């Protein structure tokens, strides 16, 4: 495998680095330091960091730019969410969460939502310091479960995320 192919594989193994390359917001030389241990080739088992930086620069030139779009969705809060036997808001692996007497809140977004929107929402919540207890998306519905105390910050983060979902 070539050094360029190894570099691309190392970047694809780190989604944050891939996104930063697409956005054009990183120093290629510093990014090379992040992937250097994973990059080697038959022709160059101990590559020079500047050579890897050049491979990163070329890879970035081939990537589509980041564009963002607003997703039309209605976000509603459902307080008192916990385990239920019937009528769940979210069910994963045999665990169903819905309206119950619990101290969690579900944010339910309906409309133009998909896995990319969920990825963006989870990123915004992580950066906002809001812990997520459960999350999922299917058929135009996105659900994120947070602690009741975090519901206001979570609502702001979810609405902001849905206003700027990356495309492509």
Which secondary structure elements does this structure contain, and how are they paired or packed?
Blueprint lengths: L2 H10 L2 H9 L4 H8 L13 H14 L4 E3 L3 E11 L6 E3 L2 E5 L4 E8 L3 H13 L4 E7 L2 E7 L3 H12 L2 E3 L1
Antiparallel strand pairs: 1-8, 2-4, 2-5, 3-4, 5-7, 6-7
Task: Summarize the structure in words.
The chain is an alpha+beta fold. It has two domains: 3-65, no CATH class; 68-167, ACT domain (Alpha-Beta Plaits). Helices cover 39% and strands 28% of the residues. It has six helices and eight strands; from the N terminus they run ααααβββββαββαβ. It has helices spanning 3-12, 15-23, 28-35, 49-62, 115-127, 151-162; strands spanning 67-69, 73-83, 90-92, 95-99, 104-111, 132-138, 141-147, 165-167. Strands 3-4-2-5-7-6 form a six-stranded antiparallel beta sheet, covered by helices on one side. It has a two-stranded antiparallel sheet with strand order 1-8. The radius of gyration is 20 Å and the shape is elongated. The protein starts with a helix and ends with a strand.
Summarize the structure in short.
The chain has 168 residues and is of the alpha+beta class. It has six helices and eight strands; from the N terminus they run ααααβββββαββαβ. It has helices at residues 3-12, 15-23, 28-35, 49-62, 115-127, 151-162, and strands spanning 67-69, 73-83, 90-92, 95-99, 104-111, 132-138, 141-147, 165-167.
How does the helix and strand content classify structurally? alpha+beta
Number of domains: 2
Q: Main sheet?
A: 6 strands, antiparallel
How far do the termini sit from each other?
27 Å
The chain-level mean pLDDT equals 93
CATH A-level architecture of the largest domain? 2-Layer Sandwich
Low-confidence parts: none
The spatial strand order of the largest sheet comes to 3-4-2-5-7-6
Secondary-structure element pattern, one letter each: HHHHEEEEEHEEHE
């Amino acid at each position: 495998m070539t050094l360029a192919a190894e570099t691309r594989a190392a970047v694809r193994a780190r989604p944050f680095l891939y996104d930063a390359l697409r956005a054009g917001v990183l120093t290629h030389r510093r990014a090379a330091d992040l992937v250097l241990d994973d990059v080697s080739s038959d022709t160059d088992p101990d590559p020079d960091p500047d050579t890897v930086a050049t491979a990163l620069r070329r890879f970035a030139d081939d990537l589509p730019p980041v564009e963002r779009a607003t997703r039309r969705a209605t976000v509603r809060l459902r307080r008192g969410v916990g385990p239920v036997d019937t009528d769940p808001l979210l069910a994963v692996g045999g665990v169903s969460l819905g309206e119950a007497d619990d101290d969690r809140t579900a944010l339910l977004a309906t409309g133009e939502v998909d896995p990319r929107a969920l990825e963006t929402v989870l990123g915004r919540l992580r950066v906002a310091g809001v812990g997520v207890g459960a999350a999922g998306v299917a058929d135009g519905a996105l659900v994120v479960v947070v602690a009741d105390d975090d519901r206001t910050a979570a609502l702001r983060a979810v609405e902001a995320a849905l206003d700027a979902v990356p495309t492509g």
